[in-house]
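Anyone else keep sequences and structure tokens together like this?

Example one:
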Amino acid sequence: MHIPFRYGVILFMFCFLLLLPRPELEAQNTTEVDTAFKKPHSPNKAAIFSAVLPGLGQAYNKKYWKIPIIYAGFGLITYFIISNTSEYKKYDEAYDYVIAGDSGYIDNDYVGQYDEQQLLDGKKYHRRNMELSYIVGGLWYILNIVDASVDAHLFDYDVSEDLSIRVDPVMHIRRPDFRPVTGVKLTVKF
């Protein structure tokens, strides 16, 4: 499916405008009003944003540093897809030419360089890598959506100063023979 460039730009601008702060909501500066009417950070909204345009959910979550990582991953995956597809087509064309026994001219370097079995092996190898590249691309896309959703769930998570872990030695007296038993006690305070 090919989306014309102008529609892609319009879709991007629409999603970008949804992220802009609204002046009527920023006019109230009191913390009481802000906390009373604060809209919760929506994991569904972050997931939908990332599904429409990868990285947009991370922008919604204010995790801007993740956007270049997402696009670098998509760029690398696209490189492998294009490279393996190109090699697969060359091996396939050379294999079909050799199998058919044609004697005419063909603009393919692999025809005289490899025999029939090597061409078949190269064709299978690059087809497998091409298909794996598509699978990894799909998984990377899904990971982008899941990451945005999880970040949105944890966006308002309060990490309080009252959190603490304490490890203390402890000694108990065993009942049957009244011998002391030592151990370690782990205390977690929320």
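And example two:
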Amino acid sequence: MTENDIHRITQRLLYTQPSQDSDVAILLGNAMCSGDIARAAADRFHEGRFSKIILCGGVPQKTRTLLHRRVNNIFRRHAVHGGVKLSIPLSDIFASATEAHHMRDILRQSDVPDSAIAHIDNESRNTGENFSFIRNHVLSSGYKTASVVCAVFHQRRALETCKKWLPDLDAMTVPVYPYKIAPDIWREKWAQIPFARAAMQGEDYRTNESNPDNYYKKGFCVPVKIA
């Protein structure tokens, strides 16, 4: 990648939005960092930022991949990681559950009551299904505002997919930085961290309108102007 590519991708995908309270949090599971997403949501729940939570994701946790990455992180500390240990909790690695059920377990461990979990989608396999499968629940519950909690590299496509399926829902994204990588390190070093680089390039491919095979043309999401 060129420096121009890195700058463009950073500006397009690593945006931040003003933090706001919302009616509900929608947690988009990620087989590589669902635990981080749930813990971030638990923190915001205890801060009173929302009172209800929807969990999405039917993909099993990628145990072998996460374990391999943890072992590599222990024995291979590269300077390009900025001295940050890419920590992956053992509880995430050996979770024999889908994304949604793993996040539910993490929320329980974080003292979030079951009464706060309004809906669990344990079947969806991609972002489009995340939102299409919860659409009826969101509409019937009358939610007006939502916080979409997801991995930072996923947030633009998540918001734009939400807008396709729930155009009247006032949604904002809450980015989660996987494996405790600080936001400033992520912004500066992501192109030098293999898993981050692959994730960002993949999202850029999907949501880059100059790509003839982008997700807008496929009808998977709709462009959203993000301030």
